């Protein structure tokens, strides 16, 4: 299915969930006072006309989502074993709460009523792509907003770099993602330790992991639309690559 604007209805935009006016909904007219102007309905009656009450639709609490690639079961077991080993030796355990994954689109917030639209759009996008191979090779570290991260490197091969580029273009065009949210920069990786990883822990571990071999390849057949349920991430939708709708 093509995504030309002239050939399909406009999709709701995820990142612009603002009311249409300062009044909140339906423009800036003051409906409560519109029947009292000029005292047209109060002649012979000293009591003001009752104001009409309009019920605003209930606000839904926004949810947090992201889009990822997941390894095969066999590769996932190896990554989890590695996380457990690191936690036992160095004490950083938070990463054990998160499924092994490669982030394609960083977390974003949206109203839950958009889930069906987002899911359908991602299914269409995935159907236009093709399965591809991913290779994990070695380890790296980074510092992001004062948070230390130990990760497994993902080879930046054309297939994975292209699907990220096409995805951010799709999210900007169809759902109004900003360039700050749907970013051009992409350094694919699988996290081993983060959040509770301290400077002394990383300093002690890095000499072991800096030159440690870790080589796994697996085939990617799906994109995963993930949602945070308040305590952990869950798979909201698995979108098959290369499958006609």
UniProtKB/TrEMBL annotation:
<dbReference type="InterPro" id="IPR050580">
    <property type="entry name" value="2H_phosphoesterase_YjcG-like"/>
</dbReference>
<keyword id="KW-0436">Ligase</keyword>
<dbReference type="InterPro" id="IPR009097">
    <property type="entry name" value="Cyclic_Pdiesterase"/>
</dbReference>
<feature type="compositionally biased region" description="Basic and acidic residues">
    <location>
        <begin position="1"/>
        <end position="10"/>
    </location>
</feature>
<dbReference type="GO" id="GO:0016874">
    <property type="term" value="F:ligase activity"/>
</dbReference>
<feature type="compositionally biased region" description="Low complexity">
    <location>
        <begin position="36"/>
        <end position="47"/>
    </location>
</feature>
<protein>
    <submittedName>
        <fullName>2'-5' RNA ligase</fullName>
    </submittedName>
</protein>
<dbReference type="Pfam" id="PF13563">
    <property type="entry name" value="2_5_RNA_ligase2"/>
</dbReference>
<feature type="region of interest" description="Disordered">
    <location>
        <begin position="1"/>
        <end position="56"/>
    </location>
</feature>
